[in-house]
Amino acid sequence: MGTKTTCRRLIKAPASQMLVVACIFMLLVESSAGSKARHFKWDVEYVFWSPDCIENVVMGINGQFPGPTIRAKAGDTVVIDLTNKLHTEGVVIHWHGIRQFGSPWADGTASISQCVINPGETFTYRFKVDKAGTYFYHGHYGMQRSAGLYGSLVVDVEDGRKEPFHYDGEFNLLLSDWWHESVHHQEVGLSSNPLRWIGEPQTLLINGRGQYNCSLAARYSNSSSSQCQLRGSEHCAPEILHVLPNKIYRLRIASTTALASLNLAIGNHKMVVVEADGNYVTPFAVDDLDIYSGESYSVLITTNQDPSNNYWLSAGVRGREPKTPQGLSVLNYRPNSASKLPASSPPTTPAWNDYAHSKSFSNKILALMGSPKPPKNYDRRITLLNTQNKINGYTKWAINNVSLTLPPTPYLGSIKYGLRHAFQQNSPPESFSNDYDVMKQPVNPNTTTGNGVYILAMNTTVDIILQNANALTANVSEIHPWHLHGHDFWVLGYGEGKFDPKKDEKKLNLKNPPLRNTAVIFPYGWTALRFVADNPGAWAFHCHIEPHLHMGMGVVFAEGIQHLTKIPQEAIACGLTGKMLMTANHN
Amino acid sequence: MGTKTTCRRLIKAPASQMLVVACIFMLLVESSAGSKARHFKWDVEYVFWSPDCIENVVMGINGQFPGPTIRAKAGDTVVIDLTNKLHTEGVVIHWHGIRQFGSPWADGTASISQCVINPGETFTYRFKVDKAGTYFYHGHYGMQRSAGLYGSLVVDVEDGRKEPFHYDGEFNLLLSDWWHESVHHQEVGLSSNPLRWIGEPQTLLINGRGQYNCSLAARYSNSSSSQCQLRGSEHCAPEILHVLPNKIYRLRIASTTALASLNLAIGNHKMVVVEADGNYVTPFAVDDLDIYSGESYSVLITTNQDPSNNYWLSAGVRGREPKTPQGLSVLNYRPNSASKLPASSPPTTPAWNDYAHSKSFSNKILALMGSPKPPKNYDRRITLLNTQNKINGYTKWAINNVSLTLPPTPYLGSIKYGLRHAFQQNSPPESFSNDYDVMKQPVNPNTTTGNGVYILAMNTTVDIILQNANALTANVSEIHPWHLHGHDFWVLGYGEGKFDPKKDEKKLNLKNPPLRNTAVIFPYGWTALRFVADNPGAWAFHCHIEPHLHMGMGVVFAEGIQHLTKIPQEAIACGLTGKMLMTANHN
Questions:
Q1: For domain B169-364, which architecture applies?
Q2: pLDDT per residue as tens digits for the range A189-215
Q3: Closest Cα partner for A453 from A551, A534, A539, A560?
Q4: Contact present, B484 and B534 (Cβ < 8 Å)
Q5: 3-state class (DSSP) for residue A44
Q6: Strand segments (E) across B310-379
Q7: Which residues, 6 or more positions from B256, have their beta carbon under 8 angstroms from its beta carbon?
Q8: Is CATH 3.40.960.10 what the domain over B33-44+76-152 is classified as, yes or no?
Q9: Where does the Plastocyanin-like domain start and stop, copy by copy (chains A, B) (predicted)?
Q10: CATH superfamily for domain A29-68+76-156
Q11: pLDDT of A492 above 80
């Protein structure tokens, strides 16, 4: 596609010389900028793997877990021919953080941006990575992310450009959590009455590697855990970060956990945060970093500690009472042996419910000077109340009392072609009742399912107030990291209790709010976001905790779909759009 | 569909009075025959269930396992609106033994007769049950049958007709085998190099009920198994057959095992076999009955034993060294308590490798006088060598050295529309090398995958010689029950060693061979079948052992597809047929 294809067509077709000249010029520009298409051929299939030294079935790509890392330069086009080699399951892959300007059908969300790729079929994802940063990709159908379908996507700056910070080397750390029970089993439990919750993860993984029922750091603890016996070649052998003393390293850290909010720290080393979700931030130093599912960060570390030692890198659970041992990795100062255990025990994770610590960290994240600023005013404000509810006895999560159940026909096609029976045509509620007490359990916990869409006017500025509340159990309000597809948003602020426009509006940060694609709501709090609906497509906005989304915790935005001239047939060749395309020739 | 719909259309359309009169007449005939449409609304979804007292995830229908029993009368039209409520898996259901005359798109075979039904979608199966008998239904995608997707389908004789035997009551027994490991896990093992075999089943189930790790009959045995403690209301509580003394009962017995060949016996009671696979046979009495996966039988028992006792009904493994305890059920002579244990231990299953016993049983099965006779001559003979092979180190089963891998586009549509890229256009081999030694391991064990089709000329008579051989291991040749879709075949005979036309042809039974849809090949033997290719459609013919089919042990026949005037779009709205229907308006 792109310039080359268009030009080839133009050159073949009767065209004015001017056009041909323009084309040649465009081709030159394209190649002079150094951007190119990067092709990948991937097979998705289950493999036996031992992420935490316990063998299990994992959803892999090309026989690997995690999937291969994609590395590209800003401006490149990434092309992935994805073949589904599963036996009975459909599959899609979402490119988390990539905005998919002009390619909303490549966003990889089942029921929203495309039909699932059925077994034996190949779908080509083709999209531009327009912005340098730390991203990742993952399954976005059922709970296939939890099944292991994920990997890293790193976009470097264009040739000739520089990052606004210096580093001598870099490492890529993809964090996840792991259960021994299959996701199929988990899904049945989540859809059962009474609910069977998935429980806490058995293991935390760093680049798909963790240890179950033993500890790499057992020698420091008084606990009963035994020292892990690793031969070094196992799937579960820890990631080792080999560094030289007195250098600066960039750690790219992303979390694709199904559930766990994490805190990451490195023994003795401060971390300077420089990037969040593919956007530069004003650098700030921390001892530890909170990272929620769906987020990514770059931090710089300086290897200025005693070079005769190695140091632990540790990830532990926040926001829920931790029942899962820390995930560990080793910062190995060369020429020490990588297997030399660090002199001190791994850094301790801050208390799981020390929300002041978490909020303090979140509030430090501010845009780097020169970053795009938010419009001063919003055109539409949507307030989204997050509650846990019941429907016919089944436990659900709901937004403004509607629990999302996705339709079989993807919105992108059904909106484009005005298929009114494909989903509920009324817009979901813009807000919730004024007298709702977010500090108490829902008085009437019953809710409804729904699949309506928030249709956003093209190029308008939308404010979202994410409002947290008490869950079904008294005195419980959970953390939810909300992720927006197709856009970055500015995080205008976090607050306590119910958002009060009169009081809270003026506290919002319109000066240097960070651009992100994921933001958390703290227990009993609110988070204010602003974005411009400038990307024609149908976009999920949802809690990135996989079982929460499975239980209905999401909404769908759509804008400017009428501006899309041609949606590839293969993206919408199912359900009611498939039927429509078959009964009338729409080519 | 059928007469009513056609008539409605005719009556609406400008039509001659003659036609209208004819229609009214046909409607009268239809209703006077008492045949009707029987509607079912089914949801397929995973449920927690304890088939053998151990909780697991089972593929159920409308929250039940096994699925609901369909009961209809010969001539009825069965209509099932099947909704897929699974989260990420497609689904189809095959109506085992129903020939689907005029409705080949309702045969329920993924990649052959239809596209899979994707999550959230509904597909309507509509087909005529034209012949009274004992049938069943089951998933036919991946290994979803093993996951529990099955149930019974019983067709009674038309009103005013009688069965050619008398009975006072009847029971329906659906036999299956059960593993604790999920089928997803099993599938990965079967697709791995080296092969990880699924092993023997943990439990045998009768109507979805069995007991793991305890025995209903422990009190009789010297073994270490403990007596099962059942409260009677569990999923795994045994099926009780409540009978009155001195009556005749019909037991409808069908086997949908994934692997196990079974032998069924009832303490002290002889069984008179009267039906096999929906066809009447010359009655014969046996003490025990061999039943292979894919087969069904009706037997008559007379409750003429000591009425103060109850009696065990027992199913045990044949053909493989049994590592699975017998499945048990109780014949409860009323008014004895159902929980009164029988006076003697359950009947002993004949030695697993007593093939003489098995062959003797198979050879007793002969058509009832008056049954359709086979054509005297065949038009085409296809000899199918069954071997275990390797492909790039992966263990497969192959037929004439081709291991079947199904294409994503169903044959029914791709053949109809001449889509030559949908599958290999060359016909698979008609036979195998003359000098192949079926008694030895394959000299060159390597084989190829393939998805070619045997195109049969319409209304020709086809002979199939199923030829067994040595597997990859020396001195091993396994039992394979082959099942044909869309037709019954006559079983002309069984023989030892390699089929030799000169010697063996004259031994074939053309006088009263039984009509069946499933027939076994014994170790190192051959089985000769004959059928008339009289049913336009694409039809699977395969080993009914689920992991064997998964490993490639099947072929596809197709005949008369050009005679099909309209294949419902929803059956072929995927893959290359879907694409074709979208690029050209074929309505």
A1: Sandwich (2.60)
A2: 999 999 999 999 999 999 999 999 999
A3: A539
A4: no
A5: strand
A6: 311-318, 327-333
A7: B96, B136, B138, B145, B150, B174, B175, B176, B293, B294
A8: no
A9: 44-157, 171-335, 440-560
A10: Cupredoxins -  blue copper proteins (2.60.40.420)
A11: yes
Structural tokens at position A102: 């002009």
B33 pLDDT band (50/70/90 cuts)? low
CA–CA separation, A575 vs A166, rounded Å? 50
**B569 touching A, CB under 8 A?**
yes
| Residue A141 buriedness (CB in 10 A; 0-12 / 13-18 / 19+) | buried
- Average of pLDDT values for B41-50? 98
Judged by a CB distance cut-off of 8 A, whether residue B180 touches chain A is: no
Q: What is the ipTM of this complex?
A: 0.92
d(CA B436, CA B433): 6
Rounded CA separation A505/A491 (Å): 13
pLDDT above 70: residue B361: yes
B507: left (phi over 0), alpha (psi -120 to 50) or beta: alpha
Q: pLDDT-based confidence at B232, cuts 50/70/90?
A: low
Distance between CA atoms of residues B540 and B138, nearest Å: 14
For range B495-518, the mean pLDDT: 97
Q: CATH homologous superfamily for B380-583?
A: Cupredoxins -  blue copper proteins (2.60.40.420)
Q: Do B90 and A87 touch (CB under 8 A)?
A: no
Helix (H, G, I), strand (E, B) or coil at B562: helix
- Residue B582 to residue A574, Cβ atoms within 8 A: no
Residue B190 φ/ψ, nearest 5 degrees: -70, -25
pLDDT recorded at residue B586: 40
DSSP 3-state assignment of A219? helix
Q: Is 50 exceeded by the pLDDT of residue A26?
A: no
d(CA A267, CA A520) in angstroms, rounded, equals 26
- Compare CB distances from B585 to A91, A118, A584 and report the shortest one's residue: A584
For residues A36-60, average pLDDT: 97
Which strands, in side-by-side order, build the sheet including B261-266? Answer: B240-243, B327-333, B311-318, B261-266, B288-291
CB contact under 8 A, B185 and A188: no
A371 touches chain B (CB under 8 A): no
- Cite the residue boundaries of each domain of chain B with CATH code 2.60.40.420: 33-44+76-152, 169-364, 380-583
Q: How far apart are CA B346 and CA B333, in angstroms?
A: 16
* pLDDT value of position B222: 72
Residue A561 and residue A418: Cα distance in Å, rounded?
A: 10
Q: How many whole angstroms separate alpha carbon B509 and alpha carbon B505? A: 9
Sequence letter at residue B38:
R
Q: What is the pLDDT of residue B584?
A: 67
A574: chain B residues, CB-CB within 8 Å: 118, 573-574
B54 close to A (CB below 8 A): no
What is the rounded distance in angstroms from the CA atom of residue B202 to the CA atom of residue B144? 17
* Averaged pLDDT of chain A: 93
Position B29 pLDDT exceeds 80: no
